[in-house]
Design brief:
mainly beta; three-stranded mixed beta sheet
Length: about 170
Amino acid sequence: LVNGQTICLGESATLTVLNSFPPYFYNWSSGDFGETITVSPTTTTTYTIFVTDQDNGCVSFGQVTVAVLPQVPPTNLGPQIICPGQSVTVCGNVYDSPGNYTEVCTSWLGCDSIINFSIVLSPGPDFIVNATNNPACLGETVLLNAVLLNPNPGTTLTWTNLSTFEVFTGPSIS
């Protein structure tokens, strides 16, 4: 008589008797009357409908289940630390400014889930570069040495020769 449905917690389901030709009287186990009802169960619920033929008084019944998917608990991502010019993508939306955010995403089940996170802008490393034998004459070697003023674990120094695009890693290059 009626097709079952699956909904997310907090949503409604519309139940309609199929292939019904009046004159019938419809009485649902929810206490509702009519060919179509809207329900908002908080757990998976089976509804029974009693259909009475008003011409001959015969009664038939059917059942339909509305499955309720559980609410996805909020996810706290915590602080996302980015450098200037970087961004964070959450649920397809791009964030690049410091602050606290809440994003509502659709989970793979089709229900909404809440993502809480903050963006912290890291100032990036502070450093100074010292040069020995500076100024140098053509053909002479100059030693460049970088000193990090606020070193963070995992910070590496990378030098790039803009003529050859050769990359060197380490605090010094000559």
